[in-house]
TrEMBL record:
It holds the Pfam family Lactamase_B. InterPro entries: Metallo-B-lactamas, RibonucZ/Hydroxyglut_hydro, Sec-metab_biosynth-thioest, WH-like_DNA-bd_sf. Residues 43-254 form the Metallo-beta-lactamase domain. Transmembrane segments: none annotated. Gene3D superfamilies: Ribonuclease Z/Hydroxyacylglutathione hydrolase-like (3.60.15.10), Winged helix-like DNA-binding domain superfamily/Winged helix DNA-binding domain (1.10.10.10). This is MBL fold metallo-hydrolase. It comes from Nocardioides luteus.
Length: 350
């Protein structure tokens, strides 16, 4: 079982994984944690790959002063500066991974690469709202009407468009990239987001895993501005895809460096099978919404009740529960019915 996030020590630093600095993971590969103020994740790990032509970074961080300052300090400690960055290999479009890459790429001429599955999210962010469904509407559809009202009353601030420009290159399918004197396999891993990628360095035996495989927590599922039919099914299929790769050292976006990608993937698959079983058991009480099922489940590794969650994490919990219920439908173990009050799920008889 993974160590708790709050006390997780990373072997490359010998300190808590979020401790500021530039930590050498292996020859030519360094980890720089960037702070995430007011975020329970504490930090995001940026990985620096040295090459003869300059630096390649896996992810860029959040475009806030604290993140930019920490990245600049980490690069300086390694003997580099922003102008040495040639490219950003972004794992996915979330703000703590993409926005600083977008800003620095434009300022210093570094290429930004991103999975093509993120195009709808960027198009929505840049003003094309066709097909967009607001979070409060998604929550209401999941039966969480009071929670939806709280989300509607606390809309996110308008985005700074300079942080959300289109990438220089879209990645499609699984491709091999020649980066920093090494071959990286860019592996499409939809689930957390539809355009998520991990980067596998087979020769170096490391996996830059983004948010797909996290060593101490599970990533959110089913919480995208452009909804997909079966995000958990996508996620578990992507986990199986990574499990079919060689066992690699796990270099995650959040949490400590870990020795085995296989071991953590196995834990994540087992976790979601357990949650599927718990969700199905909750349906034995009759037709239920995702919100009602979420109230039956424990949350976080401490098994907190749903009522203990703040409105933001409660929203994540409802949408993740809905993703589990949708996968039960896809597996033929449950049915779904659209009603005026939202979608209701029930177990398949027999």
């Amino acid at each position: 079982m993974s160590q708790p996030t709050a006390t997780a020590i990373s072997p490359d630093s010998g300190e808590h994984w979020s401790a500021p600095g530039a930590w050498t993971v292996s020859e030519g590969v360094h980890r720089i944690p960037l702070p995430l103020p007011m975020d329970g994740l504490k930090a995001v790990n940026i990985y620096v790959l040295e090459g003869d032509d300059g630096l390649s970074l896996v992810d860029g961080g959040w475009a806030i002063t604290e993140g930019r300052t920490a990245l600049e300090a980490g690069l300086k400690k390694l003997g580099f500066e922003f102008g040495d960055i040639r490219r950003f290999l972004v794992t996915h479009v979330h703000r703590d991974h993409y926005t600083l890459a977008s800003v620095l790429g434009q300022e210093f001429g570094a290429d930004v690469l991103l999975g093509a599955g993120e195009r709808p999210t960027l198009e929505l962010t840049n003003g094309d709202l066709d097909g967009w469904i607001s979070t409060d509407r998604l929550l209401a559809h999941a039966g969480a009407h009071e929670l939806a009202e709280k989300w509607a009353a606390n809309p996110p601030p308008d985005p700074d468009m300079s942080h959300w420009r289109m990438p220089d290159r879209w990645l499609e399918g699984d491709v091999r990239l020649s980066v920093a004197g090494r071959d990286l396999d860019a592996v499409h891993t939809p689930g957390h987001t539809q355009g998520h990628y991990v980067y596998a360095d087979m020769a170096g035996s490391v996996l830059f895993a983004g948010d797909h495989v996290l060593p101490t927590i599970t990533p959110s599922i089913g919480f995208e501005p452009v909804p997909v039919i079966d995000p958990l099914g996508d996620f578990m299929a992507s986990l199986t895809k990574v499990r079919d790769l060689p066992d690699l050292q796990l270099l995650p976006a959040h949490g400590p460096v870990a020795p085995s990608s296989h071991a953590r993937v196995d834990e994540l698959l087992a976790h979601h099978e357990s949650r599927l079983a718990q969700s199905l058991a909750s349906l034995k009480n009759g037709r239920r919404s995702a919100h009602e099922v979420a109230n039956d489940l424990g949350w976080t590794r401490h098994e907190r009740s749903f009522a203990e969650l703040d409105y933001f994490n409660a929203g994540l919990a409802v949408m993740e529960t809905k993703a589990h219920l949708e996968l039960l439908v896809a597996r033929g173990q449950a049915t779904r019915e659209e009603t005026e009050a939202g979608v209701l799920f029930a177990p398949v008889a027999g």
